């Protein structure tokens, strides 16, 4: 399952649509610019909030929290020792499951894995539309909304870190 994101629109406070590979709108990422912390909502085409994404206020490292229906779903933060490439850990709310996100996040070339098994690939390769990247959900039993939320978090954290340097 492939989703397409128009990269030039990905900025805090902006709203942008994520489309399927046929050009149909699937998810709206609604950036909330007037909040004290960075906040996004992932909505379906009817405007229902599927996932809330917000920055954790009191954390030593920049951390994003993903919630579904007010319940914590995952926490995303940069791995401490990642010198050569961007590397993020996604701790799911069950406390036992961690997803690994690694690659060149700012170049939109990275993968999301669980226990060494590929769940999704984010890439600009093989796309003919400029300023667009694809989110290919590899496993049929994966939660596409969660993987898109993880992608939004990782890119936001990487861009924030780059801007702080």
Task: Tell me the structural class.
Answer: mainly beta
Average of pLDDT: 85
Range of strand content:
over 45%
Instruction: Specify the number of helices.
Output: 1
Descriptive account of the structure:
The protein has 165 residues and is mainly beta. The chain is 13% helix and 47% strand. It has one helix spanning 144-164, and strands at residues 2-6, 15-20, 25-32, 39-43, 49-55, 63-68, 71-78, 86-92, 98-104, 109-114, 117-123, 132-137. The protein has a 12-stranded antiparallel β-barrel. Strand 9 (98-104) and strand 10 (109-114) form a beta hairpin. The radius of gyration is 15 Å and the shape is globular. The termini are far apart. The relative contact order is 0.18.
